[in-house]
Amino acid sequence: MALPRKGGDAAGQAADNPGPLCQSLGVRPLPPPSPRPFTIAIDDARRRGAALCLHGYTGTPYEVRVLANDLAATLDLATHAPLLPGHGDDPAVLNAVRAEDWLDAALAAWDHLDVIDPPLPDGTPRPRVLVGSSMGGLLALQLCLRRRVDVLVLLAPALRLTDAATIGVAAMALGLWRARAFLPKESPGGDVLADDAQRNNPTYKVLPTRGLTELLRLQFMTERRLSEVTTPICLFHGDADHTITPSSSRIIARRVSSPIVEHHRLKRTQHLVGLDVDRDVVSRLGCQFVARALAAPEHRAP
Question: What's the DSSP call for residue 150?
Fold first, then answer.
């Protein structure tokens, strides 16, 4: 895996002024748009652990940039967001990727946290936080089955598509993808209400259809093992999501075996929770949940 440039892309700068909608709601400006992976390093004296942030299907690390910035700035967590296979380049590449490729990349990125936040000299592991947006949420749940994860934050986890989308993807899974390699997106910036996110989000403008069948496989792989997840979990889902049914988060909240589960519904938000009009609320509540979880006795500094 190619390592990202330390510090990422000008985390403290804004892309431009928010559009009229976000201005009227008092939403903070988005960071500069970039599809690249990023790492936010924290010096040894302040660093309290590390977080991995995973983006969704056809997206980029930009989807999780706001929360990643705040995890680093407010909680002193070194933060890493990789670009998953098939993304950030040519949409055709995504049609050749399998679910296992995404999972392998997520596992490699998770293990990379030990580079930016090494274990203590006696081998004691450091606190680890995992954030997943949409398909990244499914990968995050899979990682919880394979690695020690202290805290999990899910943004519109892609467990189940909306009814309309399910019909289309089922047709693709039956072989229709061979006749139609791509489907156009209804909005160039994705399923998001925020006007600045529509303008700046560096997502693919089409949906690679063969890749959608792999997303379907990942859904099946994940849903059948939800009861094995024991990590404290905080879920966010927009009531206005047109891509992933909000019942996905309710199903996860009900089926996991986690000792602590928080589920936040966002009335105005569409699918891209980390970029949409409630992104400041998501970031604030997400950081508060992580802080409480890491304040548990097993994570306190000796």
Answer: S
